[in-house]
Specification:
With 289 residues, this protein is mainly α. It is built from ten helices and five strands; from the N terminus they run αααααββαααββααβ. It has a three-stranded antiparallel sheet with strand order 2-1-5. Strands 3-4 form a two-stranded antiparallel ribbon. Helix 3 crosses helix 4. It is globular and about 60 Å long. The model has no long low-confidence stretch (mean pLDDT 88).
């Protein structure tokens, strides 16, 4: 007998006694490009596709989705095209919208103002350009907002990088520069940054703090008795650690500013491309030359 469930913990323990269901296999979301491509290809069959839709592009938008979610997204893409009177012909933007509804739990909406859209475009262009300049491939960048609060998104291409768990110091520094890039792009173009950068700043600060303390990348500032951690939350941080974190953030901030300042033409071109297209799949530096 073969059985399947999404709620193993809720099964009667009698079912799992030896001699009954005594072999258990976990089947999660496709964890490699080949498996995901095969699922997407299966669910794309018998669907009408716009000439801009390819298996490669559609599959990239669905990284991290389960088989059922891939099917749901592609069916939803058909509904979106019907609502726009395109007779079920799916565009890449339909698939992107359907996938984002799953990721964010929200629905597509418009920016509240033209200025907000331009700020989001320069912010996401900053994240994307710094990523590309530092050798990190981007899967997708979008400035489409959703009712869940997501105003824009830049996703790294894990098909190329893999899901890296173990990182060296340079990897963390790259992460910090990419996190700071949206804020710095706003400052470069507008002279200041918006409150929309708060989550990026918080995450960058957290990475720096862990580098200095838990990861011991700075030999003189290893976590010590002056730093109290309770349930994973820092209750008190020594002044020395705070000073070191601020010093490193300043260094990485200046390096990222210089990187964007030296490539302002590419930043503005990428911003304009986002304003025109709303979503770019697999952008490259070559597109900005």
């Amino acid at each position: 007998v073969i059985g399947a469930t999404n709620r193993k913990d809720d099964l009667d323990s009698a079912l799992l006694r030896p001699g009954r269901f005594d072999r258990h296999y976990y089947i999660g979301a496709p964890d490699n490009k080949k498996d995901r491509d095969e699922l997407v290809e299966t669910y794309l069959k018998n669907k009408k596709l716009d000439e801009g839709v390819t298996l490669e592009k559609a599959s990239k938008l669905m990284i991290g989705l389960s088989g059922a979610e891939i099917e749901q997204a592609l069916n939803e893409a058909v509904y979106i095209s019907l609502q726009e009177n395109r007779e079920g012909i799916i565009k890449l933007s339909d698939i992107d919208e359907a996938v984002m509804q799953i990721h964010t739990g929200g629905i597509k909406k418009e920016h509240s103002s033209e200025r907000d859209e331009k700020v989001v475009a320069i912010h996401e262009a900053g994240h994307t350009l710094v990523s590309l300049l530092l050798g990190i491939d981007i899967d997708k960048v979008s400035i489409i907002p959703y009712s869940s609060g997501t105003g824009g998104i830049t996703k790294q291409d894990i098909d190329k990088t893999g899901d890296i768990k173990l990182k060296f110091k340079d990897d963390f520094i790259t992460d910090i520069k990419i996190l700071l890039a949206g804020k710095i792009a706003e400052e470069l173009i507008y002279g200041s940054h918006t409150q929309g950068c708060s989550n990026d700043i918080e995450r960058a600060t957290s990475v720096v703090y862990n580098m200095v303390t838990a990861h011991a990348y700075d030999d003189n500032h290893i976590m010590n008795e002056n730093t109290l951690i309770c349930n994973g939350v820092a209750k008190y941080v020594s002044p020395e650690v705070i000073d070191k974190c601020n010093e490193l953030l300043s260094v990485y901030n200046e390096a990222t500013y210089k990187l964007l300042e030296d490539n302002t033409d590419k930043l503005l071109k990428l911003r304009d491309m986002l304003l025109d297209n709303k979503t770019l799949v697999s952008p490259t530096l070559g597109m900005l030359e």
